[in-house]
Design brief:
The chain is α+β, with helices and mostly antiparallel strands. The chain is 33% helix and 30% strand. The protein has 2 domains: 1-42, no CATH class; 46-158, Alpha-Beta Plaits, CATH 3.30.70.
Length: 159
């Protein structure tokens, strides 16, 4: 059985027992230095199934050619703010903005049993928001497997 000092476990980076001596089985404290012992921490990697939601403005290149730059910037600012608020209201997280696209994830950092349904409801509301903004849009969803490694943030792999 591997044992680690409690302060090593809490720091997330156990590097071995400082005293360098073996302890009795089931020992709660180091026989050499008296430090509290605990079992080696479990791996910190987590895996989940999440739902990824994408939306973007259809024909944004043509829109940029017809609108004044300030008007386009104002329209896109309203679009991004509106889509972000919709995603968050339904329990999702905006992962990133890419050009005129929004990528949102449902199920990170907290998984809900109905994440796919939440994403679908957000997509339905987004459809109405496109009409309110006076632009056409595209919306897509896909399930994905995500994982979090010990030293990295969440990563997603589309199926």
């Amino acid at each position: 059985m591997s044992t680690w000092r409690l302060d090593e476990v809490e720091s997330g980076a156990p590097s071995g027992h400082y005293s360098g001596r073996e302890n009795r089985n089931n020992a709660r404290f180091c026989d050499s230095c008296g430090a509290a012992l605990t079992e080696a921490p479990p791996p910190r990697e987590q895996r989940k199934t999440v739902t990824v939601l994408f939306c973007d403005v259809a024909g944004s290149t043509e829109l940029g050619e017809t609108l004044d730059p300030e008007a386009l910037r104002a329209l896109l600012a309203r679009y991004f703010e509106r889509m972000k608020s919709i995603v968050e209201r339904h329990g999702g997280t905006v992962e990133k903005f890419i050009g005129d696209a929004v990528m949102a994830v449902f199920g990170v950092p907290v998984v809900h049993e109905d994440d796919a349904l939440r994403a679908l409801r957000a997509a339905t509301e987004m459809r109405g928001a496109f009409l309110e903004l006076g632009v056409q849009g595209r919306i897509g969803m896909t399930p994905a497997r995500s994982w979090q490694g010990r030293r990295s943030g969440w990563r997603a792999a589309m199926r």
